[in-house]
Amino acid sequence: MKIALIQQHATKDKTANVAAVSPRSKPPPVTARSWRALPNWPSSGSIRNARPNWASASWPSRSTADGDGVPAEGARAGMVVVINLYEREGHHTFDSSPVIDADGTLLGVTRMIHITEYPCFHEQGYYTPGDKGAPVFKTKVGTVGVAICYDRHFPEYMRALAVHGADLVIVPQAGAVDEWPEGLYEAEMRVAAFQNGYFTALCNRVGKEDCLGVCRRVVRLRPDGEVLARGAKSADDIVYCDIDLVATASSNARRLFMKHRRPELYSGWIK
Prior knowledge:
The chain has helices spanning 14-20, 54-57, 70-76, 155-163, 184-196, 252-257, 263-269; strands at residues 2-9, 34-37, 59-60, 79-82, 85-89, 92-100, 106-111, 117-118, 121-122, 136-139, 142-146, 168-173, 199-206, 219-221, 227-230, 237-242. By secondary structure, the protein is of the alpha/beta class. It has a single domain (2-264), classed as Nitrilase/N-carbamoyl-D-aminoacid amidohydrolase. The chain is globular and about 50 Å long. The N and C termini lie far apart (40 Å).
């Protein structure tokens, strides 16, 4: 199976953002089974201060599968597509990632659970905490989970995706240069893949923004924590990678860690 991770800058024009990652403008290589994942960019560039004109910046909930045209084009190309957008439902707005199957069916939507608040990332003024848990989706090419941006920092969330059967975890995010100590950007994803026995695919936004330095790059990891591919540093790129989801069955996590868990103890430890 081939996966394509799109690493791209974002602007304040949500229509231009969508057009830039359309399968029509960036056709995938010919393959019968493929994935396409987009970075974290809820429709219109930086999410940094108090809530903007959310009615124009966000996508209505009912349009998460077809409002931007990418899923329909992905279906015509036979691709499973994971997108990220600023979703509006009533008076609530979410950082959301619809998962669209290779035939164009909307399988469901992941909404970011944990909402941060610190310099340059004033997201509590934008997002409602997600209300859909940590779902996984059985697509025509494999079982996928999504950890949106800040959720990747929470081991409980990453483990929940493994418990629910994810073989591949897509991480759409907007991570800044020097946001964390050197090495942790990749190390965190390597540990998640190793401990949970799934492939991880972190898909980052890049480019200069109002409050941030140039963002980091895409990284693609095996279930043993090995890095399979990286995007160009701080530049628009598409990272293609061949993966075999069967490899998750022989991972250390599937052979050992997941079998030896003792969940009956954990609720008393973590509250």
